[in-house]
Specification:
By secondary structure, the protein is of the alpha/beta class. It has 15 helices and 14 strands. It comes from Actinoallomurus iriomotensis.
């Protein structure tokens, strides 16, 4: 669910001032009202405003310790036709909503989305643990390329679990009590505190990837506070990890084969005319022997890292030519895998929050080495070339020894009492398989499913047709006709 490439998501956010007290959220909790100030820079819109909202660390103890939630705002440019507040989330977990609004991420500066800028106050929010909100902190890097993520024996399995536990303990010590409260349900309650602070009776929501899990959690908790909601690149948080890890690996493998078929004949792909799949397998074998160098990192990439970097490029169809160039550079002798290395998900600066939130929401549920090996065998069967990395496999291994109990594991849900929510899925999405969009839509009473018949992660980033449908829906509240599909 994470998009690690800087070409896709802007980074950075605005600083924020203190808050003033105190209105009341819909669940009765006291919420601070923000004191806005100008925070624009030469790289952001002149109208950018920033603030913070104070919320309980633990929503079950509203009078206890508090944390800060960073928000920013661009007011509607057509104030006379203002619809309301549109909150956006770019995914992750760990994506910064404030950076999205401040720097035009999620294509908010694109011509297709111009009406949103005109008719809505665009609101960015950093979920708890992320960005300029009270953050997850770790004294050492959470990502450890030396940790065995594909253990071949019990000793390696024990090392994997110990590595996960060691990093979790470090983050818990450095972060404090927040480490146990960065789950998505708590973040959804923060959204309602922000709603109250904004003075809005209802909000609109545009969430992609992880932003669909967060949006769905909000809709379940506060259905009467939703005006309109787009969930694009849907995550279904009801399915077991054993199933999801195979689903995602299957989708990644299918998308890699589609890339390979395109790359073999496309003029814009560097290894034109070669056997892309066979060459990739050779590259992985070389990586397993430590022969694939990344000069920027000053070390070889592992086979899992080569797979992770490849996956990151697969998520955006317009990056496929760059993936071809990156693979060609890595495959030559001597190799230069720096383009793949910069896309490795674990090396992204947001990874500590990504790991901490994921372990709260997606505990692996492993019962020892034999269980892991059985799960890995299923993954290898589903993805014979791309099996070494998926985000769900990252959570399976990275959360195997995490010392903090998961607060929001997958569970059945039924969302009722909301307006027609628009769920969007790509038929070839490698990160959030299309089946998840269909199943999430079935869980939301009265929802509408919009399908994009194309490649890449989320329709928002890959389809003008889908963007137009999403904008029309957000403006009017009227969902597209049942069965609406966008062609590639």
């Amino acid at each position: 669910m994470a998009v690690a490439l800087a070409a896709v998501l802007a980074t950075g956010a605005c600083s924020a001032p203190a808050v003033t007290a105190g209105t009341r959220a819909s669940d009765g909790q006291v919420t601070s009202s923000p004191k806005w100030r100008d925070c624009h820079t030469e790289n952001t819109a002149p109208q950018l405003e920033c603030a913070t909202v104070t919320v309980p660390l633990d929503w079950s103890h509203p009078d206890g310790k508090k944390i800060s939630i960073a928000v920013d705002r661009l007011r509607a440019t057509d104030a006379s036709h203002r619809v309301g507040a549109l909150l956006v989330n770019p995914g992750g977990p760990g994506g910064s909503g404030t950076a999205t609004v401040a720097q035009g991420g999620m294509l908010l500066g694109h011509a297709d989305l111009k009406p949103l800028r005109e008719r809505f106050d665009l609101i960015g929010l950093d979920p708890r643990g992320v960005g300029d909100s009270t953050p997850v902190r770790c004294s050492t890097p959470v990502y450890d390329p030396a940790a065995p993520t594909l253990p071949e024996n019990r000793a390696q399995y024990r090392r994997m679990v110990a590595s996960s536990r060691r990093h979790g303990l470090d983050c818990a010590k450095t972060t404090g009590a927040l480490i146990g409260h960065v789950d998505t349900v708590s973040a959804a309650r923060d959204i309602d505190a922000v709603r109250v602070a904004l003075g809005e009776s209802r909000i609109s929501w545009l969430g992609v990837s992880y932003g669909t899990e967060l949006g769905a959690a909000y809709a379940r908790l506060f259905p009467g506070r939703v005006r309109a909601m787009v969930l694009d690149g849907a995550v279904d948080h009801t399915r077991p990890m054993t199933r999801d890890v195979v689903d995602e690996s299957t989708a990644i493998e299918r998308e890699f084969r589609r890339f390979a078929a395109w790359c073999a004949t496309a003029s814009g792909c560097a290894p034109q005319g070669g056997d892309v799949v066979a060459d990739f397998d050779v590259l992985l074998a070389r990586a397993g022997r430590g022969e694939v160098q990344d000069p920027a990192l000053g070390r070889p990439l592992t086979a899992a890292e080569v797979t992770s970097g490849t996956y990151a490029y697969l998520t955006m169809r317009f990056l496929w030519p760059q993936l071809g160039t990156a693979l060609a550079a890595a495959e030559k002798t001597p190799s230069d895998a720096s383009a793949l290395g910069q896309a490795v998900v674990g090396l992204d600066p947001t990874y500590p929050a990504y790991r901490a939130i994921s372990c709260q929401d997606f505990p692996p549920g492993l019962h020892g080495y034999a269980d892991l090996r059985a799960r890995l065998a299923a993954v290898r069967g589903a993805a014979p070339h791309m099996w070494r990395y998926s985000e769900y496999w990252d959570w399976t291994t990275g959360c195997a020894g995490w010392p903090v109990k998961a607060a929001d594991p997958p569970a059945p849900q039924r969302i009722t009492g909301v307006p027609a929510v628009l769920v969007v899925g790509n038929t070839y999405d490698p990160a959030t398989p299309y089946a998840w969009a269909r199943s999430l839509s079935r869980q939301i009473s009265g929802s509408r499913l919009l399908t994009y018949d194309g490649d890449g992660h989320t329709a928002l980033y890959n389809s003008s047709c889908a963007r137009q449908n999403e904008v029309d829906y957000l403006l009017t509240g009227r969902a597209p006709a049942p069965g609406t599909r966008c062609s590639a």
